[in-house]
Amino acid sequence: MNTNILPFLRRLIVTTTLLCTLAFAHAQDAGSEAAATALLKKFLAAGTDRAALTKELRPTSDDYAKVFTADFARKLEASQKPLWDSAPVIGPKDGQTEVTVAKATTEDFQKGTAAAKEFPGGYAKIGDKLQAGVTLFRFKFVKAGETIGMAFDGLAFVNGHWRIFPKPWRAAE
Fold this sequence. Notes:
It contains 6 helices and 4 strands; from the N terminus they run H-H-H-H-H-E-H-E-E-E. It has helices at 5-29, 33-41, 50-56, 61-67, 70-85, 106-111, and strands spanning 98-105, 135-142, 149-158, 161-164. A 4-stranded antiparallel β-sheet has the order 1-2-3-4, sandwiched between helices. A hairpin with a 2-residue loop joins strand 3 and strand 4. The longest helix has 25 residues, at 5-29. It is globular and about 70 Å long.
């Protein structure tokens, strides 16, 4: 073997290992609270096209099916179609420069844990309609030092991307 190629092969192996490690770390972090916060901070940036960012969060039929039980997924998707067709825009009000995030899992909603209580009360009605292992996020755009602001819920990392299922309990009423 040509000895001139050995340093190149070593660098290639080190680089490949590093890239694989970074990709794995990114995959592990993709649906985390930190990743949700990073996504939501985009809505706070000046000049952001919030309509386009919101449109990217529209769930597909596969997304609904991955988060909710089959019958409820179909019902929820049908009930949310008019909302999505109206092109909603998620974003802060004037002066709201920060975002707060809370998360809860399927199991939290089913057991009524403290994490679940951070969400609107309607979630107590749909704990049994969530697929196992789902994590949902609730967030608020707030003014600095305040806890009340524009609140949204139902954000989930599903099928490799972020989607939002606003107020899903309304489909259970």
